[in-house]
């Protein structure tokens, strides 16, 4: 739930079949969102299941439609193949609503692969990434530090990292309200000559553009506020992301043991839960796919209604801010600068 | 200090000028080590400074020599250049002792770059790595899980990762006493096709050898005991290493705030100190440079005497186990297998 003031009729295509607790929690979240925001929710999924869920609530005053679809794409496997075999799956239909101008934003709790595939194939990309980038704040203890990419742009080229930098800069500036965000390349030494082939080439490229490039940062600098947007290859970002997730779980067990008997069990539980969530920041809050022509917001598969409401709030904010337009403009501006340079 | 039984006359070349607290703490550690082990310590450094430090202790019954050197190489900068300008620096002289058969192992608290350069240029490498690899257990919460490489072999080739795997396997088996260690490639998906160019090619190569290869693991698997030796490019390993270090510091501050008033201040302090150390595992314990023809053990620059004693214990154990011989044999065996395959 959120306490934002009423919004002006944003149309949300919610993949009501996506996520571990669909459709019960997706529908509950949709009802909450419609109660608290002036939004039009288009619930995409199995008609009967969704109507059953909706019958639990008083939805007369709310703008919630059911858009029928058939089946859902599970996490894992080959999403493009799965979508071909199942063209009326909920994520396809939800994405088509945005493609055809019947909704402003896609919201999905996964599968990530299928959502990214639909976004790429049906909505198209800008910025030359080849795939949508995954970005956002990385760790709960550094909530304003954005990392891009976290698992999509693997074996990246320097120009792709530059696009990630621009998209991250706009996100940092407009969504996180950081004035003139500082951009850095994640490397293994702060000097220009330190790093691997990709980071050395990227350093040179970044330096040649008008972006606010502050040079290389190292792993510890995700916590030192030396940069607002830290750019890395998707392989590195994804290893870090999953390592952090695993560490959060390991740490919560460690703290449970160490604090046992020292403070009350419920306090330990709250703390370990907070530690897990801090280490799972990106996946829990939900964020836009970067470089897609229309807004697509992905949340965590294990989200409950409260989590999904948060993802819907993110979607509303992304649309309200016209974030995608700003990102396209920033990429065009960079390309224009390069041509005149 | 350590409580090992007396050892049989291992000769240790200790760079007494290396590390943040040299020579006070290096000399103190040398005295402790000589008191508790049948070792011959060759303290390399400024003669007068070292003798001043030694005069604080009763060393009559101990086998501690002072080997004079001039100057020290500071952390950072260009180590090879610094060594050329300063050929009698402590790390050069210490390494020469091993090269000329006058000591069995080099022990240094840094600079890491200079120690690696001396090892490479004076002692030589095996296994085709081009540089010594950095490996060891990565996180205190997974003390038996070895990660290689952590910052040396950047832009690695698959054959270099294979060498890292073999070296790590011998270390895991003999030093950590893991029977038949499981080897994995760190990637961003467990299936063979997942990853970047390097991990995909490495998967194929590893599969074609007789090593105990268990496939890809992901970032969270540094804590899930799916593999004993996790191999990655040094760029990835170094980003992870430094990220983990930074996270440990950030977490200790977080816990300090959260536990303030709930438990006694000294208990908080112990816990946060433990958290920092858990996140700095590799650097604190000291470990061998992998792929160097003779044993070279590097410890953390910020080590005090107790930490340096631990690094000396590591050195004694590496020599006692004849770890380098086993590693060379394992690499030769693999090459022989490849030729007959």
Q: List low-pLDDT spans of chain A.
A: 1-7
Q: Name the quaternary structure.
A: homodimer
Strand content of chain A: 5-15%
- Largest sheet composition of chain A: 11 strands, mixed
Please tally the helical runs of chain A, counting DSSP H or I stretches of 4 or more residues. 12
Large-scale geometry of chain A: globular
CATH class of the largest domain in chain A: Alpha Beta
CATH topology of the largest domain in chain A: Isopropylmalate Dehydrogenase
Number of structural units classed as domains of chain A: 2
CATH architecture descriptor text of the largest domain in chain A: 3-Layer(aba) Sandwich
Structure, briefly:
2 copies of one chain form a homodimer. Chain A is an alpha/beta fold.
Give keywords:
homodimer, 341 residues, alpha/beta, Isopropylmalate Dehydrogenase, 2 domains, eleven-stranded mixed sheet, 12 helices, globular
Topology summary:
2 copies of one chain form a homodimer.
Chain A: E1 10-15, H1 24-36, E2 39-45, H2 47-54, E3 64-68, H3 79-85, H4 90-99, E4 105-108, H5 112-123, E5 133-137, E6 146-148, H6 158-175, E7 183-186, H7 197-207, E8 213-217, E9 229-231, H8 234-259, H9 265-278, H10 281-285, E10 287-290, E11 296-298, H11 305-320, H12 323-340
Parallel strand pairs in A: 1-2, 1-4, 2-3, 4-11, 6-9, 7-8, 7-9
Antiparallel strand pairs in A: 5-6, 5-10, 10-11
Helix pairs in contact in A: 1-11, 3-5, 4-5, 6-7, 6-12, 8-9
């Amino acid at each position: 739930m959120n306490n934002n003031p009423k919004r002006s009729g944003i149309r949300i295509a919610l993949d009501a079949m996506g996520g571990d607790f669909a459709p019960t929690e997706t529908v509950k979240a949709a009802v909450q969102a419609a109660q608290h925001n002036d939004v039009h929710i288009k619930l995409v999924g199995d008609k009967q299941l969704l109507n059953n869920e909706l019958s639990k609530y008083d939805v007369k005053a709310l703008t919630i439609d059911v858009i029928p679809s058939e089946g859902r794409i599970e996490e894992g496997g080959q999403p493009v193949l799965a979508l071909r075999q199942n063209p009326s799956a909920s994520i396809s239909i939800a994405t088509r609503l945005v493609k055809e101008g019947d909704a402003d934003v896609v919201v999905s709790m996964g599968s990530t692969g299928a959502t990214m595939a639909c976004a790429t194939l049906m909505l198209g990309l800008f910025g030359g990434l080849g795939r949508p980038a995954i970005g956002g704040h990385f760790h709960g203890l550094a909530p304003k530090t954005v990392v891009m990419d976290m698992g999509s742009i693997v074996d990246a080229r320097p120009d792709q990292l530059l696009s990630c930098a621009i998209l991250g800069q706009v996100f940092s500036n407009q969504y996180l309200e950081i004035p003139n965000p500082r951009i850095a390349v994640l490397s293994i030494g702060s000097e220009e000559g330190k790093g691997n082939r990709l980071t050395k080439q990227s350093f040179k490229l970044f330096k040649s553009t008008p972006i606010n490039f502050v040079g290389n940062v190292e792993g510890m600098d995700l916590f030192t506020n030396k940069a607002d947007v830290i750019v890395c290859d998707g392989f590195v970002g994804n290893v870090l992301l999953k390592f952090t997730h695993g560490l959060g779980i390991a740490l919560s067990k460690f703290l449970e043991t160490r604090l046992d008997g020292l403070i009350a069990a419920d306090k330990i539980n709250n703390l370990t839960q907070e530690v897990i969530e801090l280490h799972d920041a990106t996946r829990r809050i939900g964020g836009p796919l970067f470089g897609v022509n229309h807004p697509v917001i992905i949340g965590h598969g294990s989200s409950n209604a409260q989590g999904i409401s948060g993802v819907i709030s993110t979607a509303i904010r992304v649309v309200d801010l016209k974030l995608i337009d700003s990102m396209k403009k920033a990429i065009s501006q960079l390309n224009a600068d390069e041509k005149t340079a």
